[in-house]
Specification:
Blueprint: E1 11-18, E2 23-32, E3 35-45, H1 52-70, E4 74-78, H2 86-105, E5 110-113, H3 115-123, H4 130-140, H5 152-168, E6 177-178, H6 180-186
Parallel strand pairs: 1-4, 4-5
Antiparallel strand pairs: 1-2, 2-3, 5-6
Helix pairs in contact: 1-2, 3-5, 4-5
């Protein structure tokens, strides 16, 4: 797509994350104007680490590594869902927080999306199954069967990135989007150094 000036629309890289304590999904989406393409997606396997704290450290290291490899301009992350198991929710929230900290470390703006909002953006149904979301993404992004992964955590991360791409054309409330510089500016009394 070109602008009226004849210049191509600037390219943006959006990283998507589906937080998890055993398996964390990630995806990289290239956006130019009103077109998008999947660059990479996969999972960070954490089951082999016995300690929850070791898992959090590995999440931080791997997310930083992916950021340093693809240099995303923005991060879209799925918000933790509210379940009955408080301990699971706490662990999931920690995993999400560590991934967010990695993005803050690299000064990447972050937008958080509720799972139902992501599903609605992709399928038109906020209660769609993970398989329905994956199938729709495969069609919309022309992903071949050979590339399509069976890890639904990876496609959930791709869905978060694609949801963000859709929202880029619409105003997004600034409360859901922040950077480290904005945080420091708005919270000077809470930040030292």
């Amino acid at each position: 797509m070109t602008r009226r000036t004849g210049q191509p629309a600037p390219e943006k890289i959006v990283m998507g994350i589906d937080p998890g304590t055993n398996v964390m999904g990630y995806a990289i989406l290239r956006v130019q104007g009103n077109k998008s393409a999947m660059v990479a997606f996969g999972v960070i396997e954490l089951k082999k680490y016995a300690s929850h704290y070791l898992k959090l450290g590995k999440i931080f290291e791997r997310v930083l590594s992916i950021i340093d490899s693809y240099h995303p301009d923005e991060l879209a992350i799925e918000a933790p869902f509210y379940g009955k198991n408080v301990q699971s929710m706490l662990k999931l929230g920690r995993a999400q927080g560590v991934a967010i900290c990695a993005a803050i470390q690299r000064d990447i703006p972050i937008t958080e999306y509720e799972p139902s909002k992501i599903k609605m953006a992709i399928t038109g149904n906020g209660a769609a199954s993970k398989q329905q979301v994956a199938a729709m993404l495969q069609r919309m992004l022309n992903i071949s069967d050979e590339i399509m992964t069976l890890q639904l955590d990876a496609t959930d991360a791709l869905a978060a990135a694609y949801c963000h791409f859709i929202q880029m054309g619409r105003p997004v409330p600034s409360a859901g989007k922040t950077s480290w510089k904005d945080f420091v500016k708005n919270n000077a009394s809470r930040v030292r150094g």
